[in-house]
Amino acid sequence: MAQRGVFPILPADPTLPALRQAAAGCQACDLWERATQTVFGEGSATAQVMLVGEQPGSEEDLAGRPFVGPAGRLLDRALTEAGIDRDLAYVTNVVKHFKWAPRASGGSRRIHAKPNAVEIAACRPWLQAEMDLVHPRVLVCLGATAAQALLGRQFRVTLNRGHWVDSALAPYVLATIHPSAILRAPDAAARHTEMTRFVADLRLVTAVLEAKIRKAR
After folding, report:
1. Domain count, the chain
2. CA of 145: how far to CAs of 50, 123, 158, 179, 184, in Å?
3. Does residue 2 lie in a domain region?
4. Which CATH number characterizes residue 19's domain?
5. 72: domain range?
6. DSSP H helical ranges for the chain
7. pLDDT tens, 119-164?
8. CB of 147 within 8 A of CB of 158?
């Protein structure tokens, strides 16, 4: 199916509120047809940290806000443990509409479906505009979809998580797992291990921010 361009509806003089308003009407790919609404990024234009996930989930789709579902609540907890104030971060996703499939056994539950390359490319101008406006000091890719969309399809989070990546996207770029991966761990012990590693990755961000504060004094 032919891809519809997103560029014509990007504001000529963008601000985050203007981008959010324009994105509400985005039909650059077919995901808008089954989603409740566009879920744009959230946070300050002066945020030092930008966290980028894959796509909104079911709760985000209904609320119209990113990272407010189970994975988002786990992210909040991890940020707190790492010493990062979420209110001072900008959170967003590579794809702004919820892609889902009905549960095979029936019922009303909507099952997450991974976005494809066309859908990711269609949404890229929105993400690029967010990065250009926020201009974060630290960019954190949460999960493989975000990491590969921003750092290249050959990037492997399993091999490179928790290491700074040379990139023109931001002075400091890091990839780690998506918090939903912790929720999918097979048991409590595995979840505890993954959460500990996740917080350790985020503490690298804290160290960068604290170093900047010390340097400014």
Report:
1. 1
2. 16, 13, 12, 13, 16
3. no
4. 3.40.470.10
5. 7-216
6. 16-23, 58-63, 70-82, 117-134, 144-151, 157-160, 179-183, 188-216
7. 999 999 999 999 999 999 999 999 999 999 999 999 999 999 999 9
8. no
